[in-house]
Amino acid sequence: MKKSPFAPKRAAKMPPINGVELAVTEAGIKYKLRTDLLLAKFTPDTVVAGCLTKSKTASGAVEWCRNNLKSGKQARALIVNSGNANAFTGAAGEKSVVNIGATVATTLGCEPGEVYQSSTGVIGEPLPVKEVLGGIETCAGQMGEGTYQTAANAIMTTDTFPKFTSRNCQIEGETITLNGIAKGSGMIAPDMATMLAYLFTDMPISQPILQKLVSKAVEASFNSITVDSDTSTSDTVLVFATGKAAISPVVDEKDVRLRPFKSMLNRVMKELALLIVKDGEGISKFVTIRVKGAKGKRAAKRIALSIANSPLVKTAIAGEDPNWGRIVMAVGKAGEAADRDLLNIWMGGHLVTQNGGRVPDYNEAPIAEHMKGETIIIEVDIGLGRGKAEVWTCDLTHEYISINADYRS
Amino acid sequence: MKKSPFAPKRAAKMPPINGVELAVTEAGIKYKLRTDLLLAKFTPDTVVAGCLTKSKTASGAVEWCRNNLKSGKQARALIVNSGNANAFTGAAGEKSVVNIGATVATTLGCEPGEVYQSSTGVIGEPLPVKEVLGGIETCAGQMGEGTYQTAANAIMTTDTFPKFTSRNCQIEGETITLNGIAKGSGMIAPDMATMLAYLFTDMPISQPILQKLVSKAVEASFNSITVDSDTSTSDTVLVFATGKAAISPVVDEKDVRLRPFKSMLNRVMKELALLIVKDGEGISKFVTIRVKGAKGKRAAKRIALSIANSPLVKTAIAGEDPNWGRIVMAVGKAGEAADRDLLNIWMGGHLVTQNGGRVPDYNEAPIAEHMKGETIIIEVDIGLGRGKAEVWTCDLTHEYISINADYRS
Fold first, then answer.
1. DSSP string, A216-251
2. Which residue segments constitute the domains of chain B, with CATH numbers given?
3. Per-residue pLDDT tens digits for B288-326
4. Looking at beta carbons, which residues of chain A come within 8 Å of B92?
5. For residue B123, which residues of chain A lie inside 8 Å, CB to CB?
6. pTM of the model
7. How far apart are CA B11 and CA B17, in angstroms?
8. Which conformational region is residue B226 in: left (phi greater than 0), alpha (psi within -120 to 50 degrees), or beta?
9. Which residue among A316, A405, A409 sits closest to B318, beta carbon to beta carbon?
């Protein structure tokens, strides 16, 4: 597969996080000569919060994580394999999930309820459990030798580049670090996108507060991206906080020390989400869609996603065609209040549509020029209210068809 | 554009309908050497019923028809142009609609409120009104010389074959005929699909009863097809009943004479809807999706459409890949009640997935064989209730991208 033109030119530096140890291996689950298993070990009292797919046919690993999250217990381990999603594999699949959870717990000396797990890759094929169990042993033997870069590599499927980023903030003179890794390039849509993202921080913070921040941050990041409107059965975002930074823990929502942490969390989640879109299957253009003037925030987001998910809008962008009529069509089908005669549309900052019609002095040259670029910006003013939203997507290309018409073979 | 492999091998015979006269011409709206204008003239007291797009940014012609339908008045004329949708053309577009309605009324000697109109083609470009008005005059001069076949030709845009069908039934020894023509190949999705369909019958029937039958028939035909999940701004289904057949009019819903008429109406609508899917942009496979065992009828339809609209399912079909995992994914994202472990899936009549997992004695050979065919059948049993639905779609191919990435040029 061709590498996405949007792969970062320069890799982010990934400092260690106190309380997190990583290991990866080539377990041989599906791919050859490629790492496909990540095992992370967390210090006692690590707090975890997360968001999981809303799919009604979620995979066993997702249900496992959902149950563990509910318990509110500490997290001591994370295991992720690529190459096989262990989804829709019936009773055998369920058994593997339990087996993997128990094996990690025994190997690292913790409870199964403290182990988090994900599987990503082809669905409907039996998971080669023996390989996974072998990989767990190998990883345990080299615990701490992995890096966030190698971890990001090990969880890739059709991704064309590994996704990782790191930010830090200062709280009471201490440096708090937040590292994130992610994967996902197709089957990306809210809620959630088909994707896995794991964040690791040394922030001392209580579980309920972390969960609240995470749920909010996901809305404006992973739930604001779409590649093909398909929702995966395995989507998982987990944030692990070891609490090892030398400040007293945040246990109150109104604690002012939350502010820098919150911005950092939002920023890292958005960076990871954009990396996922930028590796959208077959992407040739990265598209930002901003909607304002909708009746409310929710309406704005639905309209923005309707534009972002429209195959006709996406193919027009692939064809570098400033076909604003299709944008109006997508606004109309969103099901939210809209008045054709109040609509204004900008492409690349140029006003194209005014009050529902083409601007009188329409000059396609600068807009056509914008469409030839790699970064497309579409702005829509619904003209009815104050609701705003921003979502990110990519175009729909021949390459997407090629990748997905022949994924299994 | 390559002709769809699903174009009918043999054209339906289209008898005349007493009270309907047709004319077509090459008005030169966009295409060259191709008819692009249809004018139909109806006898006095012709009853009309219809369904129009639910798009919030509907075109002026759709709003015109909606107003006229509401009045419950007779219909005396229908004018349809292809090549330009006259949508999002601002005040000038609105003016054209009024202008066209008035010109047809004057030319044929009726009220503007008795004229129905549609425009289909590119959106956002000004409609060349002069050409349309010239075409009206030409058509009026040769009224009655058109046929249903030439009418179906004149309303085509990216269609690769004209769509028309005819059925009849016997009521009190009289033959009642129902002719239908339609167009539409992309931007097809409920509600409604991007499509135009006009039906003509000599059935004597009251307007409210006809409207009731039409609304119901549309649900199981035009609202059960999808090509690309995009909803057009111009979708229109209109049924014109001249009442010229020699039976007394049906004015009571419980009239037993409605039964054969209703079956005929349902059948013709379904035939036209399937012709539209069979000309889906870039189609290489015609796909039937049947869902049963859902919590209700509405849930079954949402699940069926979720499968039918999934780009990942559609590309897998294009790639002849029996990737049932993606079907489970699409069931999961529909948002309706589903239990992974109760799901059964058949492809081409072969049980593939049982209780959420691959059948124990899975043999891909016959299923792979089925996927190589042109007609794909996917059946899903949700296992929860008695809700059933059937929808029709096509695969998502390179050809679809080629057509839509470069439609305007």
1. HHHHTTGGGEESSS---SS-EEEEEE---SSSPPB-
2. 20-278 (3.60.70.12), 286-405 (3.10.20.340)
3. 999 999 999 999 999 999 999 888 899 999 999 888 888
4. 357
5. 325-326, 328-329
6. 0.79
7. 18
8. beta
9. A405
